Amino acid sequence: MAQGNNNNFLTIPSQEGLFRTVRVERSEDNSNDEDEEEAEEDVRLIPRCSPIPRKRGSSIADETAEYMRIRLVLTNRRVSFADSTGAELVDVRMFVPFDSDDEDDSRWEEEETRYRKAYREPTYRVWPEFQPLTGAELMLAVHTNKLEVESVTSVPDEPLSFEVLIRVLNVSFHKSVYARSTMDGWINHFDYPAEYVQGSNDGETDKFSVKLAFASPYIFNGARIDFVVRYETPDGEFWANNSGRNYSLTLLQSYEDDTVQTTTADTTELRGILKPP
């Protein structure tokens, strides 16, 4: 009876072939004796469907195969280098030190002159915008105003400077003479003391001189200096300003080759490009 009912119970399937025996070799170091090594086999059962474990990290062959597989999948790209097109890979530049010898300095100056534009040295000339008084008119102005500008002359080797000669009436032995000038229309002005001219006393008048000059940034063609003169004595202070018009001088700028260029242009013969009939 019991034997006939065995078909009603579940049977345990056979486990043969479901597992596979894997032997793993391992080595252990003996701390007491470093020279002796002992190998031991470790037997493990793993399921048949499980992958075989392997060491981590891919070998060089695996990396090469992976690189080739990725390269075949990607589109073809071309990379060109400078040497394949005939160009040089290295740009060589040479620098000359500052403390080079005279030969290198002369070569440097020659190269600089070659690429530098020709610079023309300007010529300056001071032009008075007033006519100084002379003779009886000068003496009349000196007696009336107690001082007057007698002359304006250029200074040798200083084209931007000029010297003003002032005649004053000998009112007192103690006296001071100044010239007040401006180059920006009296926005700013400066007082320059004049010096006594030795041996200029004629019993009635004395002479004083003062030097004025054009200065940067007022060094250009058409620059102008306006000035007046002042005479200080214990008896009072006196001024002269060219009858209210100021004493003015203009700076004229020119170049040495301006005349040469004008002459060449005038003498050049013009020729037509059309043939005569």
Strand element count: 12
Order of helices and strands: EEHHEHEEEEEEEEEH
- The span between the termini is 148 Å
Q: Summarize model confidence as the mean pLDDT.
A: 76
Largest sheet: 6 strands, antiparallel
Tally of contiguous helical segments: 4
Low-confidence stretches: 33-39, 259-277
Helix content: 10-25%
Instruction: Look at the helices and sheets and give the structural class.
Output: alpha+beta
Fraction of residues in β-strands: 25-35%
Output the radius of gyration. 54 Å
Q: What spatial form do the alpha-carbon principal axes imply?
A: rod-shaped
Structure description:
This is CBM21 domain-containing protein. InterPro entries: CBM21_dom (IPR005036), CBM21_dom_sf (IPR038175), PP1_regulatory_subunit_3 (IPR050782). It holds the Pfam family CBM_21. The protein is an alpha+beta fold and 277 residues long. Helices cover 18% and strands 35% of the residues. The chain is built from four helices and twelve strands. Strands 3, 6, 7, 10, 11 and 12 form a six-stranded antiparallel beta sheet that branches. A four-stranded antiparallel beta sheet has the order 4-5-9-8. A hairpin with a 2-residue loop joins strand 4 and strand 5. The longest helix is centred in the N-terminal third of the chain and has 14 residues. It is rod-shaped and about 155 Å long. The C terminus is likely disordered.
